[in-house]
Specification:
Number of domains of chain A: 1
CATH topology of the largest domain in chain B: Rossmann fold
CATH topology of chain A: Rossmann fold
Structural class of chain B: alpha/beta
Number of strands of chain A: 13
Number of helices of chain A: 6
CATH class of the largest domain in chain B: Alpha Beta
Number of helices of chain B: 9
Oligomer: heterodimer
Shape of chain A: globular
Helix content of chain A: 25-40%
Low-confidence stretches of chain B: none
Shape of chain B: elongated
Helix content of chain B: 25-40%
Mean pLDDT of chain B: 95
Chain lengths: 249, 325
Amino acid sequence: MKIIVCIKRVPDTTTRVRIGADGRSIDPNVEYVINPYDEHAIEEGVRIKEKFGGDVTLVSLGPDGAKDTLRKALALGADNAIHLKADISGIHDSLSVAKALAECIKSLEHDIILFGKQAIDNDDLLVGPMVAQFLGLPSVSVVVKMDISEKKVVCRREIEGALEIVETHIPCVITTQKGLNEPRYASLKGIMEAKKKPIEERVVSMSPSKIEITRMELPPERIGGKFIGKGKADVHRIIELLKSEAKVL
Amino acid sequence: MTSILAFCEQRNGEFRKTAFECLGEARRIADKIGCKAVAVVIGDNISEKSRALSEHGADEIVAIDSPVFSHHSPEACAKALSDVSKSLKPKAIFLSASSIGKDIAARLGALLDSSVASDCTDILFEGKIMAKKPVYAGKAIETISFHGEPAIITMRPNVFAPINIKKDGRFESFQSSVSEHDVKSRSISTESTHGGKKDLVESDIIVSGGRGMGGPDQYKILEELADALGGVVGASRASVDSGWRPHSDQVGQTGKIVSPKLYIACGISGAIQHIVGMKDSRCIVAINKDSEAPIFKIADYGIVGDLFEIVPELTKEIKKIRGIA
């Protein structure tokens, strides 16, 4: 089984975002981690390899820091890694990123292509299904369970208030949701081996973005504390306020 | 005349609330531009039901009605919608940022070589269409403009208001190029996970529990309060990671971003990754034993104290005013 896992380096969830000097992006001096949803994609890729044989190739598009992210993911059991470097700097929209990833994946053998369901920076949920469209492949998004037998893939995916059971076939794109698996921690052996694993570098020519971020701002701060009571005795007062002042009851 | 397309989502022949949200916003923007709002419906045996969209602001209704769509398939739907777009050449296409809408929008973007603004909370027209979109789970807001048409925009559920304005709703049956051959994945069935209750993102009232709940069984008192209010139960990351609640209940940066009318946070201290998931709620109530908990800084109302005393008391009082025995 040839497994591809696309991963992204993103600011940690505990990051307090500040707007950068250009007014259109965040101040990049923050802690970066592997996108949390991608951890489930890596884990699933490694589990599929352990069950069916084959290998796991990581692909990440990003600046130099992406190399650290790839190295950490290699320590979790992936075999190879490709670091895609954009030929032009600036902000790349999901469409141009998906085109670049699809071009790269075309050059590789692929049975299952895994993505985290979304990157927690742009929160788009676009790149996975866009890559599938460019490659002419089926995709199942926001997957919490998947079973592969022969060429058939049966997934359970989260939809509003329910799980949808979707049937598709290999080759396909799957985007992973928390709950799919419990990602493993890197073992010391894994970390040592990762140091010797290859990271191939490729420069990719990016197509121009079709959208422009004209500004980025912090959301208006929410000021609370209209009434803070104490103990059971104030329940009545809160209900009165919810009825007459907030008008939500 | 040019147009704004609203993809009106249906499941088993019933329109989702988000369908009316998309169409309502398409109507508002179309009025600003001076163009048509066109509802697009894709499904099997949906033509008759589609006509009702004229009550919600549709100048035209385009129905793609075929047995090919009897089982939902994002590939097939995206192709059908791109056929409509190539024929009508709209200025923009609005879809809901729902589990179905997001998938279709991504593929539509690839098919039309247009980028997508995802999960937007505001759409503007100032000579051109622009959209506001939260990023970093709402820690920042981007304003996005588009190069070329159509602008593809997915709209966050529960943010945009539907409208009830009767329009012509001229009905057109559209023949798309989609065939069985385009169906590469197929929805087989669904399993309800919330006992038939609404999903968090679609609910008007959420009662959420955090680490302060102490364990899975204690959520019973939150279920009772939610039931009395006609709402649903949510959870913090800490309680999901402890295995007390399923991940589908999680509110916050790696869970769901919600904006109900009323959000009651019980035993939740208010870590930033939780706050970003619920700070756009219209009214927030916090119940916590620690008066220094950050949640009180953003809550409109709060009670410092033991939630195991306060929550049942709240339930009792709510039942009284709602006339539930």
